[in-house]
């Protein structure tokens, strides 16, 4: 059901004209301006705004004063009057001065894409962590845009949602905002500390962590729900999920993992938001495996995948083990299906098909436990056993008469650092690095106590 959103001053519902400026520079980006504008319509509707009309201007570059050309401002004014609009939403980020000038000229509320996304986040935030992060993002966005003029400030801060920084905070001056930002950062450090402790506990217990990432609306929460019966919010809307949810799940071989669903990404995700959501997004950086969920049926599939790749890069999580989960294949035609890459790092699924989900869990298992080696170590070689623990995670051990069998998930880097001296004790030696087998360092070291 559509939410009714009131602005900070009263009970007026937002009726908006959406405006996009297409400049030469923007033409070079991956997303077409039409798609971007359609996405802006979805974002506005998600925020509870009634979209009256959309408007596009093609222009060499943005106007520093008005953003769009002065003539277009006049046209927009007429359109707003005619349709009874009280808000103009721009598909790009505006400067504080542009917002003020447009407000003066049009006498309606001016919102840009960044602020709209921040508003949706503010409406969605439920947990303490989410609320802190959104407030931090909003204030970081607001600070450089303050003009010191009461009316404009209140409009800037007000946004669309009732849960913007809040009316009382609109009175805050720069100094107070800076202080509040420091305070929020301090509180978020606490959150990070708690999360780290949680993760470390899981790590100690040998539980793998798997993070679901992807463009908003790709089906991340659906996959988590279908796999774990988790009571998570699934909705055909942008940014349905804001706060991370973790659920444990047993892989086909019996190994327990924890899967975390988190906030979706979107093109031009506000930088302040990514920075503020570090605590939440750290789950992705710390995961043993990242599942990149893709809406395969989207015409913008590859562009969306690129956005996700870029955000992962920004977070420093791009080098993680990854499986691309091409979701929603039930909505794809044969031609679309053919275009999806098929390799060992990707799985095609429909989140509502159990057989597909089972294949997904096997793929996860393969990725997590794939590089598992078994070693037979003489029972009296405590030194070698100690080394085993240094090259990876010992998953299982079994006593034989005079030796011990260890199943280890080997970390390639640590194994290399150890000089491969354990290779002589490996049961299946097919994966032994060749340069080492040749120079024989393994055998030399083994007898060197
Ligand atoms: N047909 C079809 N619909 C799907 C599939 N997976 C998810 N959906 C639908 O896609 C919509 C979005 O799903 P969510 O799971 O909320 O997506 P999300 O990635 O968590 O989205 P955000 O939390 O907004 O980032 C919902 O309406 C789901 O029912 C699928 O495999 N096939
Ligand atoms: Mg979700």
UniProtKB/TrEMBL annotation:
Residues that, per the record, bind GTP: 214-221, 239-243, 261-264, 327-330, 350-352
Subcellular location: Cytoplasm
Record keyword Coiled coil present: yes
Main location: cytoplasm
Domain Hflx-type G residue range list: 208-372
Annotated GO MF terms: GTP binding; GTPase activity; metal ion binding; ribosome binding
Cofactor(s) the record lists: Mg(2+)
Positions annotated to bind Mg(2+): 221, 241
Keywords, alphabetical: Coiled coil, Cytoplasm, GTP-binding, Magnesium, Metal-binding, Nucleotide-binding
Gene3D superfamilies cross-referenced by the UniProt entry: 6.10.250.2860, GTPase HflX, N-terminal domain, P-loop containing nucleotide triphosphate hydrolases
GO CC annotation: cytoplasm
Residue ranges the record marks as coiled coil: 167-194
SUBUNIT field: Monomer. Associates with the 50S ribosomal subunit.
Family: Belongs to the TRAFAC class OBG-HflX-like GTPase superfamily. HflX GTPase family.
Described function: GTPase that associates with the 50S ribosomal subunit and may have a role during protein synthesis or ribosome biogenesis.
Name under which the protein is recorded: GTPase HflX
Organism listed in the record: Paenibacillus contaminans
Gene: hflX
């Amino acid at each position: 059901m559509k939410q009714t959103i009131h602005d900070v001053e009263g009970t007026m519902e937002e009726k908006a004209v959406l405006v996009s400026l297409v400049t030469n520079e923007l033409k070079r980006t991956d997303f077409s301006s039409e798609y971007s504008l359609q996405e802006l319509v979805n974002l506005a509707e998600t925020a509870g705004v009634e979209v009256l009309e959309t408007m596009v201007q093609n222009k060499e570059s943005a106007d520093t004063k008005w953003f769009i050309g002065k003539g277009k401002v006049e046209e927009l004014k007429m359109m707003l009057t005619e349709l009874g609009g009280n808000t103009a939403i721009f598909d790009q980020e505006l400067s504080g001065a542009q917002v003020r000038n447009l407000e003066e000229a049009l006498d309606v509320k001016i919102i840009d894409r960044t602020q709209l996304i921040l508003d949706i986040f503010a409406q969605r935030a439920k947990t303490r962590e989410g609320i802190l992060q959104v407030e931090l993002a909003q204030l970081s966005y607001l600070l450089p845009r303050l003009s010191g003029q009461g009316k404009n400030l209140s409009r800037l801060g007000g946004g669309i949602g009732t849960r913007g920084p809040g009316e009382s905070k609109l009175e805050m001056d720069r100094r107070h905002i800076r202080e509040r930002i420091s305070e929020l950062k301090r509180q978020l450090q606490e959150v990070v500390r708690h999360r780290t402790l949680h993760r470390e506990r899981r790590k100690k217990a040998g539980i793998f962590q798997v993070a679901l990432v992807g463009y908003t609306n790709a089906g991340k929460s659906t996959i988590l729900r279908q796999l774990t019966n988790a009571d998570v919010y699934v909705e055909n809307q942008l940014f349905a999920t804001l706060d991370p949810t973790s659920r444990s799940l047993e892989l086909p071989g019996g190994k327990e993992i924890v899967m975390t669903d988190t906030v979706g990404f979107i093109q031009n995700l506000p930088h302040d938001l990514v920075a503020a959501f570090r605590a939440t997004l750290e789950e992705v950086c710390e995961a043993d495996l990242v599942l990149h969920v893709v809406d395969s049926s989207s015409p913008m599939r590859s562009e969306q995948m690129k956005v996700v790749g870029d955000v992962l890069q920004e977070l420093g999580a791009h080098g993680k083990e990854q499986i691309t989960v091409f979701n929603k294949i039930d909505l794809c035609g044969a031609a679309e299906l053919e275009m999806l890459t098929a390799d060992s790092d990707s799985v095609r699924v429909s989140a509502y098909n159990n057989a597909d989900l089972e294949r997904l869990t096997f793929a996860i298992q393969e990725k997590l436990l794939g590089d598992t080696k078994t070693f037979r170590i003489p029972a009296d070689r405590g030194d070698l056993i100690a080394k085993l623990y240094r090259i990876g995670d010992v998953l299982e051990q079994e006593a034989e008469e005079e030796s011990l069998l260890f199943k280890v998930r080997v970390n390639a880097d640590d194994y290399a650092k150890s000089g491969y001296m354990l290779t002589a004790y490996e049961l299946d030696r097919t994966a032994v690095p060749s340069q080492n087998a040749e120079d024989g360092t393994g055998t030399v070291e083994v007898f060197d106590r």
